[in-house]
Design brief:
With about 240 residues, the protein is mainly alpha-helical. The protein contains ten helices and two strands, in the order ααααββαααααα. It has one domain. A hairpin with a 5-residue loop joins strand 1 and strand 2. It is globular and about 55 Å long.
Length: about 240
Amino acid sequence: MFYRIKKIVTVLIAALLFIVKWPFAFLLLLTDYMVFSHLSSFLKALNKQVLLKDAIVFFVSFFIYRTLLQKRMKFWETLFHELAHLIFGVLTFNRITNINASDGEGGVVRYQGYPNWLLTIAPYVFPVLTFLLLILYIFSKSIYHSTLHYLIICSFAMYVAQVIKEFGPNWGNASWFSIGVKTDADLERVGHLFAIFVLPAANFLWGFFLVFFLQGKSNFFFSIVKGCLINYLLTFLEFFKHLI
């Protein structure tokens, strides 16, 4: 009985995700537009000195990781990539049967259930290590917050470097100027057009959220985003009402 119920839930989740795939992409783009259009209001709530310091740490970490460390981190990149698949496989009620990560030969997560685009695209929109450090930050004592603060920034810089390597311009062999978008099996499954919309939008929001979280103002971030999205929804409903 439990297995049958779980199977039904898995099918319903997969069907729901199929329906909301493009509305989700549109919502992400709308949220990004809202953030940019209210950027001055957001920046006024932040400590500029802390923001500048965090930005320097991020870009220095990104540069060092991209040029010196990334080739030596293939196993860990693969592991976190597959962990993202695993996490969203479990969250969408699929049964994980195997996970494998290797140094140089890629990795795989095998599961029984129904595939969905969220499970497939997870490694490119969900920074696993950063998320784990955020949880640790929330539940740790304040004396550790300063160290975790910078570890979170460094981990996100590493994640962005990995996403760019797998999806972005072909920066292989530390060539910063080669052109061409890499192909990836995961991204081919969800569709490159969808990925082009979702990946930058989702990761921009992650970065913006981290800026506010690390300054203790995540509630402000969520309240502004919620208020703007509600206003956009009301405007859309009013427009739709006039069409009818």
